[in-house]
Amino acid sequence: MRRALLMxxxxxxxxxxxxxxxxxxxxxxxxxxxTSAGAGSARIVGTVHAGSLAVVALEPKxxxxxxxxxxxxxxxxxxxxxxxxxxxxxxxEPVEFRNNDDTLHNVNVKDExxxxxxxxxxxxxxxxxxFTFKKDGFYRVNCDIHPAMAxxxxxxxxxxxxIAESDGRFxxxxxxxxxxxxxxxxxxxxxRKELDVKGGVTEVTLGGETxxxxx
Length: 215
Ligand SMILES: [Cu+2]
Known about the structure:
The chain is mostly beta strands.
């Protein structure tokens, strides 16, 4: 049941995801300072008031280079099920797709909005396939052999992404000071706020009466 709700929420949210301005997160300029978690880094503590699951992304308003991912995210196939049902990955960084079942699976991944195919490969038992997403956004993951198998992937250029807790809370640590945009994708809506992060703790609320979402 939770999966059904999640998939519905993501599918709806994806419809407007592409209107997000990605220009700030693509191709960092030479002048962009690398992210460091040193002195002056801030923490962002937020809540999404939405009533359904939310994916939250914190993106810099000015070009910024981020360090590569520390670990390769994995979408596994076990017991005729993709796990996790929603995987957060970095655009431009590799993702591993695995098959730990005793049966052949394939992984068919499409852009949630355009339905454009990212790839479609068969993965035998014990097999691994690595793929690097080139474009931010939501992707739908299916196995054509087992139609009940489905999952979602959210790919973002920023390393600051999260699935909000069931009560809507989310947190980002070691955020460099500066202007950021925080966006929540939830229940077919896109809630967004601009943040001027100075250091310490920055609180943000998305949705409810204070929402400026839907722009
Ligand atoms: Cu399968």
